[in-house]
Give the backbone structure.
Amino acid sequence: MDSKQRAVSRLIAQSGQMLLAHGAESTLVGHITYRIGIAAGMDEVEVSLSASSIVVTTVYQEHCVTTVRRSPDKGLNMRVVTQVQRICIMMEKGILDYDLAQKKLNAISPERYNRWVVVVMIGLSCAAFCRLAGGDWSAFMMTFLASSVGMIVRQEIGHRHFNPLLNFSATAFITTLISAQAVLHDIGEHPQLVMASSVLMLVPGFPLINAVADMLKGYINMGIARFVMASLLTLATCLGIIGAMSVTNVLGWVQ
């Protein structure tokens, strides 16, 4: 029985670790890990979350086991989150026991879209914002170029596992450097819109949403940690933009 409890505790900890590392909000992490533990036959399941780790305690036949796992940020990936949720539901319906659930959990891989599809779609989305804000087609094309190149830079730096703050700052610098050419060469009717729209891909919307959701649902420490990280990413982006403006002597939308 003790071996079962240890195996289930590891399953719960790994599930929570994967959810937390791939961008799930704290309430979802707590609910899913609790449901997995109860479905596996545990009497009690308690989960404590922090910004970079998860602590799981299970109680089974008056025997208590506690395990701790680090949970480094691995980037947003909703496929991983939904796969863990499916395993939880299948356990609750009796389709999987904890051994099969562990095998399925180990088989989950964070698949991602083709990088060039992401580059094109990011370019189009930023260019669409420019167009909606009143930019003409020349500004649209310049925004597409600047944001697409910026996304390539972001991907390349990310693949080399540099600090995210450095990544955002460098990406903002390169993107603003390219978009500033629209102002320098007077491309389009409102070239300043190019500079404003091309860096919208760097807005940390998902971390900010999760931060507010965590604080509203009682996970104050997690919410504060996520809000601080999102604020630091925003600061790094601003430093990159200001650096490029200083180099080109173009103030962009500030004018």
Q: What stands out?
A: The chain has two domains: 2-107, 115-254.
